[in-house]
Amino acid sequence: MAHLAIEGVSKLFGTTFAVRDFSLEVGDGELVCLLGPSGSGKSTLLRMIGGFERPSGGTIRIDAKDVTNLPPERRPTGMVFQSHALWTHMDVFNNIAFGLKLRRLPKAEIRERVENALALVGLVDYGRRITTQLSGGQQQRVALARSLVLEPKILLDEPFASLDQHLRERLREEVRDIQQRLGITTLFVTHGQDEALALADRIVVMRDGGTEQIAPPSIIYRRPQTAFVAGFIGSMNFVQSHIRNGVCEHPLFPLAVPVDDGPVTLASRPEALAIHPSERANAATVHRTVDFGTHKIVDVDLADGTRLKAMVAPDERFQAGMKVEPSFASFFAFRDNALVHQSMPSKSDAEAVRLLPV
């Protein structure tokens, strides 16, 4: 196991910061996911930790040892690239053994380690296959085995973006199982919120090279600290309004929001948005209904053009064109991207909101 400490790390490309004053501590055996849109600095940060990019400022320590300026081969890290980066002229065995040969280990030890790594990723009988004969998922496993065979203290992982959805889900579960079994401290980079929610002990939501929020998945989902995080993790409904005397002036959401007068953004998850048939003149209109089997998602249009999503039971019958009245069982209020108020569901709504899909 290993402890990773990133202290005030920045990376400049020309005059542009890819990462700015980033700090994070990752505990022994912890899996932390770096999540954010393209250009948020995730991969640059990962490459600096792995030694493939040199920071413009700051310090990176592994087990209290400063590794900021060490090359990749002198760091106790292993990296699994999205592109796999396998040598096509070598078979699977030699791809995995390559790093061990550079360390000049005895042949018997190399064979034992490679065979153990192949067993770990479920490819026991694939050692003599050429990598071009493997499926995308098998190539990803070889890339993982090549990293694990070096017995890294810290595993740096890129997403499975090139794989189909079912294979991605299966492989991420396998990676998590292996990581927990070996107790390797791991950073995992992804664009996909589903991967972050499924894999991570903690999620770091990044934006423009900085940090928006760091917390366990359930906290990130249920208590986002910024409007950006609220909109980036899961599906979120946003309603623009104004507060006057502690009350929201929106005609459909006259909610108590105990903040100073001024503009406000209300936000609520689809599972916390209730809808009921209505005859009111300013009622919302059902745009469409999508049946997911376990539940339905109803798209609802407000009079000002705002579209909201409500999660309802599979036997609910809402049709396009129906007039409905929406209400929030719970909601967040943001101003200038910062959370200024969070309501909790009433007891009658608590059970429904407890079943949030995290």
UniProtKB/TrEMBL annotation:
Pfam families: ABC_tran, TOBE_2
Annotated keywords: ATP-binding, Nucleotide-binding, Transport
Chaperone keyword on record: no
Database matches in Gene3D superfamilies: 2.40.50.100, P-loop containing nucleotide triphosphate hydrolases
One GO BP: quaternary ammonium group transport
Record InterPro entries: AAA+_ATPase, ABC_SmlMolc_Importer, ABC_transporter-like_ATP-bd, ABC_transporter-like_CS, Mo/tungstate-bd_C_term_dom, P-loop_NTPase, Transp-assoc_OB_typ2
A GO cellular component annotation in the UniProt record: ATP-binding cassette (ABC) transporter complex
Domain ABC transporter: 4-233
GO MF assignments: ATP binding; ATP hydrolysis activity; transmembrane transporter activity
Annotated PANTHER family: SPERMIDINE/PUTRESCINE IMPORT ATP-BINDING PROTEIN POTA, SPERMIDINE_PUTRESCINE IMPORT ATP-BINDING PROTEIN POTA
Family: Belongs to the ABC transporter superfamily.
Entry protein name: Putative spermidine/putrescine transport system ATP-binding protein
